[in-house]
């Protein structure tokens, strides 16, 4: 099974990464700053810029969230989590920070804490589709496959019935682990629709009737 990445961080600059709920009026969208942040400066320079802003306004939760994102991208996960916690001390209803902190915990291997963060994000914002995807991955990592399936399907439903290969891989595998071959085949084929050359999905289809223990030993 391909390695899954729990880290799916959302920065308060939706124009940078093309993600995050753009309708959220709290999101920062200075296009000049965005362009500079992406094209001209290093991660350390971004950290320095964010810190300079926070020295002037330590309550700027969006900039602090972004600082946490950069730390997490650099795998400085404890530092990232500390920044997200500071954000949530000021804005406990900021779902993006709950999602980001969950992603950082997940990347750190603390799946239970990740799940708590995702559940809080859903409590605050039940229509935040990305959280359901991350929660599904967390349960997949815990080998709680039925819960993973339920949350993957919820994410796909909220996403207009569509998903990327990164969602279909663990979803197909979760069905396979539960011996639901019909649905496993369905999602192996979804992967191949997106990428006809995907060797993993093709191999799984070819060996669908072979016991999983035999496949793992091969």
UniProtKB/TrEMBL annotation:
InterPro entries per the UniProt record, alphabetical: TPR-like_helical_dom_sf (IPR011990), TPR_rpt (IPR019734), Ycf3/AcsC/BcsC/TPR_MFPF (IPR051685)
TPR repeats: 61-94, 95-128, 129-162, 165-198
Gene3D superfamilies: Tetratricopeptide repeat domain
UniProt xrefs under SUPFAM superfamilies: TPR-like
Top-level lineage group: Bacteria
Entry keyword annotation includes Protein transport: no
Signal peptide: none
Keywords assigned by UniProt, alphabetized: Repeat, TPR repeat
Protein name: Tetratricopeptide repeat protein
Species whose genome carries this gene: Candidatus Auribacter fodinae
């Amino acid at each position: 099974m391909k390695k899954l990445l729990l880290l799916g961080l959302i920065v308060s600059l939706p124009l940078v990464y093309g993600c995050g709920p753009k309708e959220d009026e709290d999101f920062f969208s200075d296009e000049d700053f965005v362009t500079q942040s992406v094209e001209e400066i290093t991660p350390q320079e971004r950290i320095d810029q964010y810190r300079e802003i926070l020295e002037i306004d330590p309550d700027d939760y969006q900039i602090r969230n972004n600082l946490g994102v950069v730390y997490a991208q650099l795998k400085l996960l404890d530092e990232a989590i500390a920044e997200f916690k500071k954000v949530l001390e000021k804005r406990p209803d900021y779902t993006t920070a709950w999602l980001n902190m969950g992603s950082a915990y997940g990347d750190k291997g603390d799946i239970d804490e990740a799940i708590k963060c995702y559940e809080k994000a859903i409590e605050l914002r039940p229509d935040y589709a990305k959280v359901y995807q991350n929660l599904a991955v967390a349960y997949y990592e815990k080998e709680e496959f039925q819960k993973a399936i339920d949350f993957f399907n919820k994410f796909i439903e909220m996403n207009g019935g569509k998903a990327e290969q990164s969602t279909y891989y663990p979803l197909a595998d979760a069905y396979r682990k539960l011996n639901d071959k019909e649905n496993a085949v369905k999602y192996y084929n979804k992967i191949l629709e997106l990428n006809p050359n995907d060797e993993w999905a093709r191999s799984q289809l070819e060996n669908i009737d072979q016991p999983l223990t035999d496949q793992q030993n091969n």
